[in-house]
Amino acid sequence: xxxxxxxxxxxxxxxxxxxxxxxxxxxxxxxxxxxxxxxxxxxxxxxxxxxxxxxxxxxxxxxxxxxxxxxxxxxxxxxxxxxxxxxxxxxxxxxxxxxxxxxxxxxxxxxxxxxxxxxxxxxxxxxxxxxxxxxxxxxxxxxxxxxxxxxxxxxxxxxxxxxxxxxxxxxxxxxxxxxxxxxxxxxxxxxxxxxxxxxxxxxxxxxxxxxxxxxxxxxxxxxxxxxxxxxxxxxxxxxxxxxxxxxxxxxxxxxxxxxxxxxxxxxxxxxxxxxxxxxxxxxxxxxxxxxxxxxxxxxxxxxxxxxxxxxxxxxxxxxxxxxxxxxxxxxxxxxxxxxxxxxxxxxxxxxxxxxxxxxxxxxxxxxxxxxxxxxxxxxxxxxxxxxxxxxxxxxxxxxxxxxxxxxxxxxxxxxx
Length: 416
What we know:
The protein has helices spanning 17-26, 65-68, 71-81, 91-99, 170-178, 234-245, 285-296, 319-324, 356-369, 392-401, and strands at 5-10, 30-35, 48-51, 86-89, 113-115, 118-121, 124-128, 131-139, 155-161, 165-167, 182-187, 208-212, 218-221, 265-266, 274-280, 301-313, 334-337, 345-352, 374-387, 411-415. By secondary structure, the protein is of the alpha+beta class. The protein folds into two domains: 5-245, 3-Layer(aba) Sandwich (Rossmann fold), CATH 3.40.50.880; 265-415, no CATH class. A nine-stranded mixed sheet has the order 2-1-3-4-13-12-11-8-9. A hairpin with a 2-residue loop joins strand 6 and strand 7 (124-128). The model has no long low-confidence stretch (mean pLDDT 95).
């Protein structure tokens, strides 16, 4: 039998290509690099695919979102319908989630979020942000997946991410559990589960480390099985090899779940407290990348980004005292700005529903500067979009429904 060919998909900012190449060769598969801008038709020649980890497009706007809107991902959807395995590792998992390939309803809607890490012990947050360590994951017994060995044991694998917490709403959660779409869970060395850190390193719902589509040929996994050193993930890649070599009949099945249409509400500006809009003196590469992505959707627009703070305080508190600490922004390269009403210009405020960053900033200001009158801080981003067309309403809908600004599961978006 000839060796099966696996393409590893590389975006600007992808990494671990050497580790992926080595592990595929070790398990008897032939790896080939495929760049995001290579001809998509070339993917027809491969038997399976891995989307690499890393920081595609520098995680601008949100991890995985820009890559998920690239044409190569549309081709991967076609290949998945044919039954070919598609594995997304870390940033690759974020791309699969943003593109809707996981968990995969008929329209490939964005149904799930991979959001900010939240390390918890006893219901209390003890850490947030980027985290890397070796952890254990175990395959879920009833899950159907091209990447699970029957009776597989816990594996020791590394993680390295800042946004790895699987999040889904209550209605979809019931579907995910009913269809056994959680394929791997974080556990301890003996396979025991816990919601607490360090067993669950990022606060992921149901200790989910990996999520699959209903037919099991597409999977998003946050840990890095390709980085293991002592054959810890052999079961994982042996299962992939067995799947691509199998002649078993395949019938694609989509998740029976309809996403809700985005409904943008007008932002209610606080009657008390203060607002700050922060702009940058230096070139804003993130806004430039989002602008280029919007152009690729067929909309001519100029994009600018502001950081937004809503600060709630007791009456009489001097907000300038908070500004003077330099905790909220760096005055060497940032400044307080204002929006300007202009024809054809729209503003959208995006905030995480679980605003860990805002909570952390408020706690820092209270603890380090004794601002006891500071009640809360909410941090978000305001996107300014100037559209150059005669169909601005249609273009705005196209932009918002691409989710380039916000993930509807973990974030809220308001007209500002």
